[in-house]
């Protein structure tokens, strides 16, 4: 097996000092152009790559960030990671990406790998069954900042970047009431998650405040298949629903699958509204009305916040992104 070319080998073959070779590779102004050219040509020929571990020891920075998300099945986390990666490249950072599969054990294992790799910081969207946050606190105490994104803990630890979940739910509720909807099948996510509880609480409070709490029937769906089955079951028992509200894109996809199989016309037979990253609503006709929760915006905001933390320019521990209504023709 061929061993990696070292800085020392380059210097020996070029009859230069390792310091000169190192400066040439960094395009230092004090190194003559002819010398730079010789160094770069040999480095390319021998496929030289800097030793990342040695660089991290020298600079106290690994130039790596970790990302741990529950899944990559939806467009939301894909767009979040894409946004983070795009901006990382501009700053010379690379990413370690982990999928917890909504398992706290897998999440903890990924955190330990990040620590072993001496990453500069970690983004985490919590697994559904995560209850113990001690390891996150230890990482923060050890100088590895953890930013919770989207699925954030209710406890006051670490840094949090999320959406105005209560505001998004209120916008949705009031929009449906203003449209005169009287019987709404409301599909929310896992009730163990703070994001679900916050959205559901704000949603129901708005209906209650306007004396219309009886207009909604709430069910919880953990994904596409369960959402599809709930809609099928509920509509088989009653045809009186005038709207289906979906808390996530995954829930929307499941609901739409059943509606299409049943041949339900939108919005003629039933209206549909959701909270969404913004991609999936545009795949349907008519386009689905939604309150935006953008993975791209979350990724951009989270990474800029991380860089601010690493440069010790930011001390704010929570940022909430604004939610906006995007009207389609589905309600």
Protein traits:
12 strands, six-stranded mixed beta sheet, 3 domains, Rossmann fold, 434 Repressor (Amino-terminal Domain), alpha/beta
Blueprint of the fold:
Blueprint: H1 7-14, H2 18-25, H3 33-45, H4 52-59, E1 64-69, H5 75-90, E2 94-99, H6 104-116, E3 121-124, H7 134-141, E4 146-149, E5 159-163, H8 165-178, E6 184-188, H9 194-209, E7 216-220, H10 224-237, E8 243-246, H11 249-262, E9 271-276, E10 289-292, H12 295-310, E11 318-321, E12 325-326
Helix pairs in contact: 1-2, 5-12, 8-9, 10-11
Describe the protein.
The structure is a single chain. This protein has twelve helices and twelve strands. With 331 residues, it is an alpha/beta fold. It has three domains: 44 residues, lambda repressor-like DNA-binding domains (434 Repressor (Amino-terminal Domain)), CATH 1.10.260.40; 130 residues, Rossmann fold, CATH 3.40.50; 129 residues, 3-Layer(aba) Sandwich (Rossmann fold), CATH 3.40.50.2300. A six-stranded parallel beta sheet has the order 2-1-3-4-5-11, sandwiched between helices. A six-stranded mixed beta sheet has the order 7-6-8-9-10-12, with helices on both faces. Strand 6, helix 9 and strand 7 form a beta-alpha-beta unit. Helix 1 crosses helix 2, helix 8 runs parallel beside helix 9 and helix 10 crosses helix 11. The protein is elongated, with a radius of gyration of 25 Å. The relative contact order is 0.11.
